[in-house]
């Protein structure tokens, strides 16, 4: 099982950061004269270019957020997966529930309600996994859907700026100002073209980022499903019928621990000492504890692992 989990955490997009740096490097001018020309061009875009500039800032922010958050190590951290693997392998499903409760992420948000209902059978666990996986997937897909919205709105802003520039151009023609000063018509046409270019300049990265991160989100969902399948493939559902896991058992265990704490004046146990476990009699049947699933001899009055009182039929 460990080898299967390790193969799921190999990063398939190692060159993403390098490509992003190259794109950002080509987007900025390399000398002062080019920077001055770029600034002059942006000023010719008029007021509509301000809205397009705001969209460009949002686009960069969303691209960076998706690049850092939409990753398999964020959705299913390797350390959390190893803790869950150990707890499930030991049959300590309450500990697996604790790991999920204390470390919220894609993996634990889907696995936590399934582990809590593992005593109801395999079919119920599958339904719970499917429902919560769908909800989590929708939330993760929503992170990159805003890039698609920007890809649609940015050309509209550019088109609006183009129309405003053409209106200014025809107003200059109607006023006869181009005879005395042809730069008015050139400035109006420049405003129209700059807005068109700016809208496309924002829309193209937005659409590219949307499709790229949408595919990456799908890869993350598949990877998390693989981790869950590996963790739950050897769960003995038939032997766990009726087992109690979750916050109710956690409260009972906390109450039992509090009641077993030494009272005032009582000599505390030596550090490192443990409550002696009942030794199984010869020929005793070893069964899982109904509460914590630890292997115990059948018929003992209390579980030495979770300290709960047992009622045997």
Walk me through this protein's architecture.
A hairpin with a 6-residue loop joins strand 1 (286-288) and strand 2. By secondary structure, this protein is mainly alpha-helical. It has two domains: 2-239, no CATH class; 283-313, no CATH class. Helix content is 67%, strand content 2%. The radius of gyration is 32 Å and the shape is rod-shaped. The chain has helices at 2-7, 16-27, 32-43, 48-69, 72-75, 78-89, 93-102, 106-116, 122-175, 177-180, 183-232, 247-259; strands at 286-288, 295-297. The protein has twelve helices and two strands, in the order ααααααααααααββ. A two-stranded antiparallel sheet has the order 1-2. Helix 7 (93-102) runs antiparallel to helix 8. The model is unreliable at 8-24 and 267-283 (pLDDT under 50). The longest helix has 54 residues, at 122-175.
Radius of gyration of CA atoms, rounded to a whole number:
32 Å
Mean residue pLDDT:
75
Total domain units: 2
Q: Hey, roughly how much beta strand do the residues contain?
A: under 5%
Unreliable residue runs: 8-24, 267-283
Number of strands: 2
SSE topology:
Layout: H1 2-7, H2 16-27, H3 32-43, H4 48-69, H5 72-75, H6 78-89, H7 93-102, H8 106-116, H9 122-175, H10 177-180, H11 183-232, H12 247-259, E1 286-288, E2 295-297
Antiparallel strand pairs: 1-2
Search tags:
67% helix, two-stranded antiparallel sheet, single chain, 2% strand, mainly alpha, 313 residues, 2 domains
Write a brief caption for the model.
The protein has 313 residues and is an all-alpha fold. It has helices at 2-7, 16-27, 32-43, 48-69, 72-75, 78-89, 93-102, 106-116, 122-175, 177-180, 183-232, 247-259, and strands spanning 286-288, 295-297.
